[in-house]
Design goal:
about 110 residues; mainly alpha; about 0% strand; rod-shaped; transmembrane; transmembrane helix
């Protein structure tokens, strides 16, 4: 009665099968180019590609804002809308809706 007489352990008599199993386990988990390492790198790559697209979109928005602010009318409109500036002979009326007031309270 040997150790490999068990019907479940009989395939492990073959040295080639043992070497193949050791090789596969080594390559999947322990090698510098392992599957785990590549999986982590692919996850990082996807995240970086998403961030790249996000920043490209932000740059497009910023370039649009720069283009609008490069004209005199754009600067005047931004000053009026964002900073409530006015000409000396004008009056400004700020109209707030109920839903915008509720949003401001939630943000605080």
């Amino acid at each position: 009665m040997g150790i490999f007489d068990n019907k479940y352990l009989k395939p492990f008599k073959n040295i080639y099968l043992l070497v193949l199993i050791v090789f596969v386990v080594w390559m999947l988990f322990f090698d510098a180019h392992s599957w785990l390492f590549h999986h982590e790198l692919n996850t990082d790559k996807k995240e970086l590609e998403y961030q790249k697209e996000h920043y490209k979109n932000e740059m497009a928005k910023d370039n649009k804002a720069i283009k609008e602010l490069s004209t005199e009318e754009g600067v005047e409109r931004a000053a009026r809308e964002n900073y409530y500036m006015k000409k000396p002979n004008e009056d400004i009326f700020i109209i707030e809706y109920e839903d915008s007031i509720a949003k401001q309270k939630q943000d605080e």
